[in-house]
Amino acid sequence: MEWRDRWHITIRWDRADNSPAGVVSVERVVDHPDELRYLIGRARADPHVVAFPYRRVRELVGEEPDACLEGHRYAGGSATRPVRDWWPCSCGGHLVLRCRLCPDIRVDPVVSTECDAAKPRPDS
Ligand SMILES: [Zn+2]
Ligand SMILES: [Zn+2]
């Protein structure tokens, strides 16, 4: 999995009749700032658009790992289901999976040099 920046934008029209979608508000999620700029440009150019609030969100995308690094599969029931934990981090956070069959601990996404998850926190 990896953290990715995405943008949520809501476009609101004065009346449903004036919107191309036929509804007063449409919510879109885009992956790229160019797409966001395009939507904002269109919203600005439309005199019937009354508001277009948007926000950046970091989302975890991709599949969770399904086996530990020793090859023990996590699926299959309570005996093999890993113990799940979460490390808060400046990057957004990391999913921690502790294998029940061996000492392996998988951290996903992988902790990078910019991460502060592995360092002790000043308040703990
Ligand atoms: Zn294992
Ligand atoms: Zn991190």
Give the ligands present.
Answer: zinc ion
**What is the chain-wise order of helices and strands?**
EEHEEEEE
Percent of residues in helices comes to: 10-25%
What share of residues are in beta strands?
A: 25-35%
Structural class: mainly beta
User: How many separate helices?
Assistant: 1
Q: What would you say this structure looks like, in words?
A:
This protein folds into two domains: 2-59, no CATH class; 65-124, no CATH class. Helices cover 10% and strands 35% of the residues. It contains one helix and seven strands; from the N terminus they run E-E-H-E-E-E-E-E. It has one helix at residues 33-45, and strands spanning 2-13, 25-30, 49-51, 54-61, 83-87, 94-98, 105-108. The strands form two sheets. Strands 1, 2, 3 and 4 form a four-stranded antiparallel sheet that branches. The protein starts with a strand and ends in a 16-residue tail after the last strand. The model has no long low-confidence stretch (mean pLDDT 92).
